[in-house]
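User: quick one
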Amino acid sequence: MVSEMIVGRDVAPVVIDGVVARTVVLASADAGLRQRLRASLTGLRWQVREAGGGAEAMAQLDASQPEALLVDSWLPDLEVGEFAGQIRMLYPGMELLRVDGGVDGAARSPRRNELLHALREAQDGAGNDTAAWAAAPVAVPRSVGRGYGGAQEAPRQVLSVLMGREELVWQESPARVQPVVTLPEMVGASEAMQELARLIRLVAPRSTTVLIEGETGTGKEVVAKAIHRLSERAGKPFVVLNCAAIPEALLEAELFGHTRGAFTGAVQSRTGRIEAAHGGTLFLDEIGEMPLALQAKMLRFLECGELQRVGDNETMRVDVRVIAATHQPLEQRAGERTFRLDLYHRLAVFPVEVPALRMRMEDLRLLAEHFLDLMGQEMPRKRLTIEAEARLYEHSWPGNVRELMHVLERGAILAGDRMEIGAEEIRFRRATRG
Ligand SMILES: Nc1ncnc2c1ncn2[C@@H]1O[C@H](COP(=O)(O)OP(=O)(O)OP(=O)(O)O)[C@@H](O)[C@H]1O
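Assistant: Done. Structure below.
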């Protein structure tokens, strides 16, 4: 279940040595490289925000509006070229440097020179020990980990400097993992997730209504956000309303807004979520929980783009793309007349299904690494023992990705000061034991 929210931006200037620091987001799966770059850049009065992959970097960009982005030549979740293209489109004024190319035809500036200087220093700090650039591989039980081609070998990158030129080049070892083409914030390399990413890319640029189906915790909201971010509406609000979380009596006013005195307790007029999403996207989670009477009003809005606040005679036009999600079989519900068939057809112009985690166990390791990386931003980054990882593969994950996230969080806490999460720390809730 997701909470209601309006995604906003937070900008908190940081002062280093009495000077307001500029912010750089550093996207790399290589913790060593990030650490060295952080040291160099902090010395140059840059505030560094680290991201272990493209999805995380996107979230950091959204939150901190940095002056620059440094991106590794390989990211675990996104194809770098495509990621860079999206960044240029979404943040045209931002300095973007790849650690492999350094110079991409953009004009030199003091800012850019500083970043290049930091890249050189980071390379010096690495010395000639190429093993230092290799991430520690985590073994996957072969019987279950085969799906992700080459996942057993960690990416190994060797940095070299073209002497006399301010450029850095990454050389790749033959053991390199093939980049996986998915989407911002959507970790997963399975065929099912790549197909989902393809559908999302196709539908994102249009204003088509999308119906996202999938079990609880599979990532339906993640998909909705990806569609929003890849659309021309990306700079506009992404508004979420969980239809199951608001009492029936209040849902209409929450969606459409209300005038002062429209009902008992309406002491002042209020904008509804649809209006708040003007220009952007409205994500209606758990649409199957919407009362039938309100479904009729929603259908009218979807068909003409007009709405009336509760208690108001005025009609207003808004430009909102609607994405709905459900874990219920809506078509079946429509057959049983507990959901309006006409609304179902209107919503399901473009249906997409997010597969259950047990149907794509080859994504388990990537997802686990992703969540351990995220937790590693708040406490020392922990690893799973082979036995702990095997235990993850034995489970059937009825709570899907969200359950995995919670199991790992619990495991990390239970492990206390130890850097490894053992099998005994991987505990499943009794009700969801697989
Ligand atoms: N592919 C993914 N990559 C990274 N994180 C994911 C992925 N899928 C889901 N998550 C994470 O798992 C959690 C649950 O995802 P989300 O809320 O999108 O699921 P949902 O299907 O909308 O759940 P519900 O049906 O309960 O509303 C979130 O914290 C989300 O960030």
